[in-house]
Amino acid sequence: MRSLPLPLALTARLSPVVVLAAAGWALSSGPLAAPQAAENKPVEKTETQSAPGPSTTQESKTYTAAPAPCGALAAKSVKSLVPGAKTAGKEIASTDSKLRRTCSWNALKGYEYRWLDVSFEVLASDEAAERSYGSRVKEKSGGGEVPGLGDEAYSVVNLTTEDKQQTREGVVLARTSNALVVVTYNGSDFESKKAPSTDEINKGAIKAAKEAVAALQNGAKG
Question: Between the chain's N and C termini, which has fewer beta carbons within 10 Å?
Fold first, then answer.
């Protein structure tokens, strides 16, 4: 198969260094910059402790460390969402790996390209997480709530075009107690120059988010 030139935007995503520079660590202001076009789709807590995993308080779980992100998804899920990718994933360097961790999977199989990020962020309290969640949701218009996912969750899908190449990206943001889970999932077809459907990207992002939230709640280790 002949070598295919990638659009500038996707070429940049293949470099972890550029990804971090462009995202400014995804979780500080959302996994990506503000989208071009949206398609629609008190109990006081203690400060962060040093031991990993959730506490056993009955009111709500308070997480003290981010789980290993590359172990958050089942291998079969990675194979389904990112055909051709190594199921082990690649963890992105973090300035504070105890509280912020991200894993990425990406692959070009034939003409189909897929990219998936799963990120965890642990904040000092439920209230801090609620504020962060609210501000990030406000930045992304056109999406909607995802019922039954964590304490609250939001999903949005966007379409961008560069050099006539379409890319469709879905973002799911979920909050569970004082922890946030952010999933970014996108794809392109370099033969047709079209993007996958909104339904495919949205469902894929939500599927990954459900597994990631379960991994957080179960204290998954990877």
Answer: N
Q: Average pLDDT in the 162-178 region?
A: 97
Percent of the chain scored above 90 by pLDDT?
66
Express each pLDDT in 122-131 by its tens digit.
999 999 999 9
> Does residue 135 form part of some domain?
yes
Range(s) of the domain holding residue 21? 8-41+63-217
Residue 178 sits in a domain whose CATH number is 3.40.1000
pTM of the predicted protein model: 0.73
Tally of structural domains, the chain: 1
Radius of gyration of the chain (CA): 17
- Give the span between the Cα atoms of 83 and 90, in whole angstroms: 15
85: exposed, middle or buried (Cβ count in 10 Å: 0-12, 13-18, 19+): buried
Q: With respect to residue 2, please indicate whether it lies within any of the assigned structural domains.
A: no
Give the pLDDT of residue 95: 86
